[in-house]
Specification:
Length: 313
């Protein structure tokens, strides 16, 4: 049986490895084109491409999967099954109908919630207590296909998008390992999604990254960890971008001051206390413009921020 794998970031690598470790015949890997990275802007292969090349698997990197030439290139591998994980492009009907066992996707949410390109970030930013991975048949809509299997992953207060990404990547690969034998043997009864319960997780925008200090402290705490390690939440300090990488979970105490939201209340080695819409938030790791990320205690020793400074302007 010929398997074609489609994926791009680190999230997808364990799923590809699982297919290979379980002895599936991965005849080709489809991934996004190489992108420039780093200060030198050198073209860099995707993590999935790098993994495929280690195993001598042919790699295709179509700019647009809908291109008829790209479709025929995939058809040339006679896929019986297509497995995708964070590939980054929507599959056209001509590809969806190609393999006899269908196209399945390892999606990073508990569908139908958080369909779309940034489900992990949005789940954390919304303060969800649990997320998970859903394996589903792919359809022409955005993450609308029938669900095959799923696994839940708790979100703790200490989790960030980075830690959940790692947990979900491994959990998705293990779920794929357990699901495929039943799927290929025809023992799966896929469950349609309830569209009325669907929510969407669009790709992160610049507005999503900007901190609005008038919001509740807990909302900001979730926003900050939901954008860690990429792309990072930010505010402004003296008109320049000031990134915030971590904060302490706020308590339930009410605001002790009538200061404008965004006002720095105090700076200690424990953190930077900033007025919010319903109290205050302690920032612990930040990144001033032109500097590396650092703890607030390190920033305090080199460039302390005076109380009364207003962030966001």
């Amino acid at each position: 049986m010929n398997v074609v794998f489609m994926g791009t970031p680190d999230f997808a690598v364990p799923s590809l490895r699982t297919l290979l470790d379980e002895g599936y015949n991965v005849v080709a890997v489809i991934t996004q084109p190489d992108r420039p990275k780093g200060r030198k802007r050198e073209l860099t292969p995707t993590p999935v491409k790098a993994e495929a090349l280690k195993h001598g698997i042919p790699v295709l990197q179509p700019l647009k999967l809908r291109d008829p030439v790209s479709v025929e290139d995939i058809r040339g591998y006679s896929p019986d099954l297509i497995v995708t994980a964070a590939y980054g492009q929507i599959l056209p009907k001509s590809v969806l109908t190609m393999p006899r066992h269908g196209c399945i996707n390892v999606h990073g949410s508990l569908l139908p919630k958080y369909r779309g390109g940034a489900p992990i970030q949005h789940a954390i930013m919304k303060g969800e207590p649990v997320t998970g991975v859903t394996i589903m048949y792919m359809a022409e809509g955005l993450d609308t296909g029938d669900m095959i299997s799923r696994v839940e992953i708790p979100i703790t207060d200490e989790d960030t998008t980075g830690t959940i990404f790692d947990k979900m990547s491994l959990a998705g690969a293990e779920l794929l390992r357990r699901t495929l034998p039943d799927l290929l043997a025809g023992r799966i009864e896929a469950v349609p999604q309830n569209d009325a319960e669907a929510t969407y997780a669009s790709n992160i925008s610049r507005d999503d990254e900007r901190i609005d200090w008038s919001k509740r402290s807990l909302e900001l705490f979730n926003q900050i960890r939901g954008l860690n390690p990429m792309p990072g939440a930010f505010t402004l300090l003296n008109g320049e971008v000031f990134k915030v990488w971590a904060s302490l979970k706020p308590g339930t105490s009410a605001a002790r001051t009538s200061a404008t939201p965004g006002t720095v209340l105090q700076m200690t080695d424990d953190g930077l206390e900033v007025r919010t819409g319903d109290g205050s938030l302690w920032l612990t790791h930040v990144q001033p413009a032109g500097k590396k990320a650092m703890s607030v205690s390190d920033l305090r020793r080199g460039a302390p921020i005076p109380p009364g400074t207003v962030l966001g302007v």
